[in-house]
Design brief:
alpha/beta, four-stranded antiparallel sheet, 10 helices, about 40% helix, globular, binds adenosine-5'-triphosphate, nucleotide-binding, ABC_transporter-like_ATP-bd, ATP-binding
Length: about 270
Amino acid sequence: MADAETPVIEVKGLEAYYGRRRILKSVDFSVNRGEVRVIMGGSGSGKSTLLRHLIGLNRPAAGHVRVLGIDLVEAGTAEYLALRRQIGVSFQGGALITSLDVEDNVALPLREHYPELDDNTVRIMARLKLEIVNLGGFQHLMPSQLSGGMIKRAALARAIVMDPKLLFFDEPSAGLDPVVSAELDELILKLRDALRMTIVVVTHELESAFRIADTITVLDHGDILISGTVDDVRNSPLERVQDLLNRRPRDLVIDADEYLRRLTEEDAT
Ligand SMILES: Nc1ncnc2c1ncn2[C@@H]1O[C@H](COP(=O)(O)OP(=O)(O)OP(=O)(O)O)[C@@H](O)[C@H]1O
């Protein structure tokens, strides 16, 4: 396992493809313990693809991904499962199971990874996490009875139920009003400070990114444009970074090679 000095995430030369299309182009990326790293970038820039590689859901076409000291390319199944117990993931949309109430949704990873735990212990652990995300008392509601912000918080409670060292959060603010979104930002900072988690957040929301980030990585068409502090990113002289910060669309500029490739490419099987 990693010591206190080693980055929690180390990625070197990561390449990713869907079919023959290269999505990530030799990405180098590292995240230090205890920081909130925000991954930003336009739609289709490769943020979710990078996240999937960091969680081990996708295998790199080239390069290495080391998480909490474990090389995901080389790890065997047992090592990977041990690692997954230390990683929390909250996907876009919440992905709660509609037939289970909030408490059973939150308890799910515990039941899956620690089947030997008795029901009472599982219940207490789930409720503790519901308290942390301000859903204390709502444990018996069904997902269909929750607001958008409550769904995100329940998904977050589920992601942290096993006290992960590392938390991945995909689009926490998507579809939320600004007040609820700001509450969620505060919650992310609370997890970093009170539970000392390292947190990687993918977001489109600039305001939220600047509020929660210790460091920011900006992706653009599968390349990292910049990784640095909030000030580094704000003051970046790179035109593409400023386009993103000022919401100037770049995708209207047609890349002739890419356009031709799309027209002529056979479907991957
Ligand atoms: N399963 C898949 N099969 C084929 N292509 C995919 C798949 N998933 C994503 N892509 C393509 O890969 C590119 C990068 O997608 P990705 O979802 O990583 O981007 P993103 O930055 O997360 O975008 P968004 O902000 O819109 O969610 C996009 O062009 C997308 O269409």
